[in-house]
Amino acid sequence: MTNPFYFQKKVAVTGGLGLIGSFLTRELVNQGADVIVIDDESKGSWKYIPDLQSKVDYRKGTLEDPQFAIQSMEGANYVFHLASRAYGVGFSQKNNFEMFRFNDLVNTHALDAIAAIKPIHSLVVSSSCIYPDDGPTPMSDSYPFSGEPEHVNWGYGWAKRILEQKAVIYQKETGIPITVVRPFNIYGEHYHWVGESSQAIPMLIHRLMLGENPMVIWGSGNQRRNYVHGLDCSRVMLRLVENGYFERPINIGREETVSVKDLVKRLAQFSGIKTEIQCDRTKPEGRFIKSADSKLLIAALGDDFEWKISLDEGLQRMLQWHQTTF
Ligand SMILES: NC(=O)c1ccc[n+]([C@@H]2O[C@H](COP(=O)([O-])OP(=O)(O)OC[C@H]3O[C@@H](n4cnc5c(N)ncnc54)[C@H](O)[C@@H]3O)[C@@H](O)[C@H]2O)c1
């Protein structure tokens, strides 16, 4: 359905072929925007939105190149900066310097381009990884940075913190709004499989489908996480920009959590695959509860915002994703 706010506006989406970006691109096309998709296809592809290829202005290239960053955003009224290198924690914790270097470079060029283009409003995507492992539960977006970012995403977390701070300084100096969001765990059937470096839900599903029995979970299995589907994450981003500028970074996450053990049980139930769960307590489980304080988000979205995809529906979509991917 078209939306007067985005209708015929030029909206640039960096990382527009990725998990969240491809949902965002489709939503924007549906709402009547003239979408510019910026991506280097290092991870994303047209696989999940092939019908949109002829409906958007595709500017293929890497934001590692500062000139390309500026050219790619030329003419944009709004910019959503999502491009980043993000893999599962197994990869991230072994490649902290590269995760920091690459993401900081790309973010710097994206912000330089935003400063040059001066869109009406931009949104840049940080992450819940900026929070320390020992912070309060639920994790609140109302406190300043403290300690080190999440241990398993240390380099990536620092690049995101720097992105946030640069965006705030730029906004304060120029008055041009840049909304900063901190998504928690986002999943969805537009996921691009990257083997052993894949994120938690796709990886659990893959192991289940391969017949792993018992399924071995790191830690107690009681560690709790909150999950938001990529479609809802993209709808949140659009609504936040539509609703104006928020001075503080905003969590995109839910307070409700599910234990990893329960997640595997649900996947087994929906797929009809019987499996035992074995918890390997010699392995780290990370922060025990990763839950988002979503008071600011709820206030910023407005009373009429509704989440569309429940966790159970999302998990079933992911099982279908597996069938079509492998
Ligand atoms: N998925 C999550 O759980 C999650 C959680 C917190 C934050 N985030 C953040 O949300 C944003 C989107 O995440 P996602 O899950 O959709 O990631 P994704 O990896 O699926 O998508 C990223 C996209 O950026 C593109 N890209 C990477 N490097 C590029 C470059 N140099 N130039 C141009 N394009 C480039 C990739 O090809 C890909 O299409 C990222 O900034 C990520 O850090 C994601």
CATH topology of the domain at 10-190 and 227-254 and 291-308: Rossmann fold
Number of helices, where a helix is a run of at least 4 consecutive DSSP H or I residues = 10
Radius of gyration: 19 Å
Unreliable stretches: none
Largest sheet: 7 strands, parallel
Main β-sheet, spatial strand arrangement: 3-2-1-4-5-6-11
Task: Work out the strand percent.
Answer: 15-25%
Oligomeric organization of the protein chains: single chain
CATH superfamily of the domain at 10-190 and 227-254 and 291-308: NAD(P)-binding Rossmann-like Domain
Order of helices and strands: EHEEHEHHEHEEHEEEHEEHEEHH
Binned, the helix content reads 25-40%
- What is the overall silhouette? globular
The total strand number stands at 14
- What's the mean pLDDT score? 95
Distance between the termini: 33 Å
Specify the CATH class of the domain at 10-190 and 227-254 and 291-308: Alpha Beta
Structural class: alpha/beta
User: What's the architecture of the domain at 10-190 and 227-254 and 291-308, going by CATH?
Assistant: 3-Layer(aba) Sandwich
Could you say which small molecules are bound to this protein?
A: nicotinamide-adenine-dinucleotide
Question: If you had to describe this structure to a student in words, what would you say it looks like?
Answer:
The chain is an alpha/beta fold. The strands form four sheets. It has a seven-stranded parallel β-sheet with strand order 3-2-1-4-5-6-11, sandwiched between helices. The mean pLDDT is 95. Helix 6 (200-209) crosses helix 10 and helix 8 crosses helix 10 (311-325). Strand 5, helix 5 (154-174) and strand 6 (178-183) form a beta-alpha-beta unit. It has a domain at 10-190 and 227-254 and 291-308: NAD(P)-binding Rossmann-like Domain (Rossmann fold), CATH 3.40.50. It has ten helices and 14 strands. It has helices spanning 19-30, 66-73, 89-92, 96-117, 154-174, 200-209, 230-242, 260-271, 295-301, 311-325, and strands at 10-14, 34-39, 57-60, 78-81, 121-125, 178-183, 185-187, 215-218, 224-225, 227-229, 250-252, 258-259, 277-280, 289-290. The radius of gyration is 19 Å and the shape is globular. Nicotinamide-adenine-dinucleotide binds at residues 15, 17-21, 38-44, 62-64, 82-86, 106, 125, 127, 183, 185-186, 192. Residues 15, 17-21, 38-44, 62-64, 82-86, 106, 125, 127, 183, 185-186, 192 line the site of nicotinamide-adenine-dinucleotide (NAD).
